[in-house]
Amino acid sequence: MFMTLKRTKILGWGMAISFLMIHILMICVFYKCGVTPMVIFNAFSIVFYVFMLFVLYKEWFPFFAIAIYLEVAAHMTCAVILTGWNSGFQITLIGMSVLALYSEYTGRALKLKIIRMMPACILGMFLYLGSYVYLQYHPAPYSLPAKTEYALSLLWGVIVFVIMLFVLQLLVYIAISSENQLEYQLSHDKLTGLPNRYYLSTQFENVEKENSDYWIAISDIDNFKKINDNYGHNCGDYVLKTIGEIFGKKDVLVGRWGGEEFLFLRKMEKDTDPFKYVDDIRKEIEQTDFSYEGQKLAVTMTFGMSYFRGSDGLYGAIRDADEKLYAGKHSGKNKVVNVMGGGNDSATSYQDPLTRVKNKPAYEKMIESLNWDIQNKTAQFGIVIIKLLDVAMINERYGHDKGNDYIVGASKIICQIFVNSQVFRIGGDDFAVVLTNRDYYDRDKLFEELKDRYKETAENSAVSAWERYNASCRMAVYADGDESVETVLSK
Description:
The protein is of the alpha+beta class. It has 17 helices and eleven strands. The model is unreliable at 341-348 (pLDDT under 50).
C-alpha cells in the first residue's frame, strides 16, 4: 500500500506549515489594507495551525482533516463577504474539496476512524454560492486595491491548481501502483514468491504461438507429507519458501504449479543441456542445509522432463512430464526422469496411437501402482470414467474416419481439463482419468467442467455431427477403508 501513517503524517505536516505561512502572509495583507476583522481572524488561524501541528503529532488524522476544511471554509466566507468577490478567496474551496475527499480516501486506506467529507464539501459548495448571492444584495464593506486583488487572484489560482494537480497525480500513481500490486498478487504465489499457476497459464498462450523447441519439467518435493506430519505445517512452509528462493535465482521460467509441485519451462538452447541443467538443480536442493528450529531436514526432489515444439504439444508435454515424475516417485525418488525406461517400458508401448493418451496396458500398470499405494496406506486419488455415447452412430452414418475424429476431439477435451492427471483410453469409446496432484484437489470443479463442455458441444448445432461430443461421465474417489481400485470403482 502506497499510503502509510508515516507518509500521511509528513503530508499533513507539509499542508499545515504551508497554510500557516499563507495566513502569516494574509495577516500582513489585511493589516496593510485596513481589513481589521480579517486581521483578527488570521491571528486566530495562525494559532489554529500551530495547534494542528500538535494534532498531527498525536495522529488525530480525522479531526485534522475536518478541522482544516472548516477553518478554510469559514475564512473564505468571511474574506469574500468583507472584501468582495474579486479578491478570489472563494477559489480556495475548490482545491480544499479535492483535498478533503483525498483525506477520506487516505483514512479508508489506512483503516482509520472514518469521517465522511462529502457533507463538508457540500457545505463548502453552499458557502461558495451563498456568498456570491449575498454579495449581490449586500456590497462588501471593505475594498482591496486593484493590484492586491490581481495578486490574490493569481495566488489562489496557483495554489488551487497546485493542489488539484498534486492530488490527481498522486491518485494516478496510487491507482497504477495498486494495479501493479494486485497483478503481482494474482500472478505470484505468496509463500514462495514464484509465479503461480495463473501466470504460467498466460505464458503457455505465448509459447503456443511460437514455433520453437522447448523443454518442460515438473518437480515434486519427496516425502513432503511426512515433513508436515513430523514437524508441522510451518516447517513445510519453510521448506517451500527456501526452495522458492533457490528456484527464483535460476535463469528459467519456474513457478509453483500447486501444493509441493513446481513447473519449469525454457526454450531449447544449443549451449545448454536441459537434463544436466535440471539435474544440477536437483543436486543443489539435495545439498542445501535445511534446518528448522534446530532440526536438520533431508530434503530432495524428483523431476519429470519432456520436450515439445511451442506450436504443438504443450499440454501433451505437461502430461508426459507429470507421468515421468510419477514414475520417478515410484522408482526411488530424488532423480530426474526424462526417458521412460526401455523395452516394454518405453513411452510408445503405453501410448494409444489414435489419441496419443495412455493405452489400456498403461492403465493396468497404473492400477497395480495404485493398489500398491492402497496397501501401504499412502493412496490419494480419484478416477473419472468417460464413455463416449455416439461413436457407433458416427461410424455408421459418416464413416470410421469421422468416428476417429470424434474420438480424438472428445479426448482433447479430457486432456485440456485434466492437465495434471494421466488420461487413458481403456476401450474403443472408453476413457479413464486417474486424478492426482492438483486435479485431485480440484476434482469436483473439474468434473463439472468436463460435463458442461460435453453438454455444450453436444447441443451445438452449428458444427458437424462428429464435433458434437456426447459422453457419460462418473467419478469415484478413494477413501479410507477401500481395499483396492476395484472397490473404489464399485461404489
